[in-house]
Design goal:
By secondary structure, the protein is α+β, with helices and mostly antiparallel strands. The chain has six helices and twelve strands. Strand 11 (220-225) and strand 12 form a beta hairpin.
Length: 243
């Protein structure tokens, strides 16, 4: 079963190789992602995030999902010394850097609960896989038609933060200015929640972000800094060249 839909501002593609997993499972998965977009988008005035940011909802009024997301955001803010911050001065509350990976990981868990054992779920280049091996390419940070590495994953996730899609959109919360010390950083972890938030947080930290991400338990890193130097942790699962 294969499906591609545009959700949360990017294409989401799903491939499930198990027999008996049909369109009804994909319907549930994409409905969940659309629900997340409606509830957590900082661009929808009626979303839970916007209503909370305007003071129409108090902390005690929030859903357990949003409370969980905001708790994760705070954990990464503290861990990065404020470089990762979803509450930048003069800007609305924007937890998207955590919401994306968290919601897509939840979607993958819906697949597993439905009996899927071999699948790949790609959300705008951030990927969750099960039952591999799967080969996943990481786009070159400066050349859209090239890859800078290919990895092989059996079960787990990989996320990349870079400047090539949206320019200098990631801000270092310590300075209030765009983070420019890295061109891209890819993080492999057991869950996309961890991989995506860690990649974004590391990018916000600048040159020190690669070492910070690499020191986090269960994370493997492939980073390209502004001087085009590559740093790859020993356990990063680079795919062997095909014969």
């Amino acid at each position: 079963m294969r499906r591609v839909e545009h959700v949360m501002g990017f294409p989401v593609s799903l491939r499930v190789d198990d027999e008996g997993i049909g369109d009804e499972v994909a319907d549930v998965l994409f409905a969940w992602l659309r629900e997340v977009d409606a509830r957590f988008s900082p661009f929808r005035p009626d979303s839970e995030v916007c209503r909370y940011d305007r003071g129409e909802l108090q902390l005690r009024d929030l859903s357990s999902d949003l409370t969980e997301v905001l708790d994760l955001c705070e954990q990464y803010r503290v861990a990065t010394g404020g470089a990762f911050d979803v509450r930048l001065p003069g800007r609305p509350l924007d937890p998207c850097a955590v919401v994306k990976g968290w919601s897509v990981q939840r979607a993958a868990e819906l697949l597993t609960a439905a009996g899927a054992r071999r699948f790949i779920l790609n959300a705008g280049g951030d990927v969750v896989v099960a039952g591999g091996p799967w080969r996943v390419g990481v786009r070159h940070p400066e050349h859209a038609d090239q890859l800078c590495t290919v990895l092989e994953l059996t079960d787990g996730a990989v996320a990349t933060s870079a400047r090539y899609e949206r320019g200098d959109h990631i801000v270092d919360g310590r300075t209030g200015t765009p983070a420019t010390g890295l061109l891209s950083i890819s993080v492999v972890a057991a869950s996309l929640t961890e991989a995506d938030a860690t990649a974004t947080a590391a990018f916000a930290m600048g040159p020190e972000g690669g070492d910070w991400a690499a020191a986090r338990p269960g994370c493997e890193v492939f980073a390209v800094d502004a001087e085009r130097c590559v740093r790859r942790t020993q356990g990063f699962p680079v795919a062997l060249a095909e014969a």
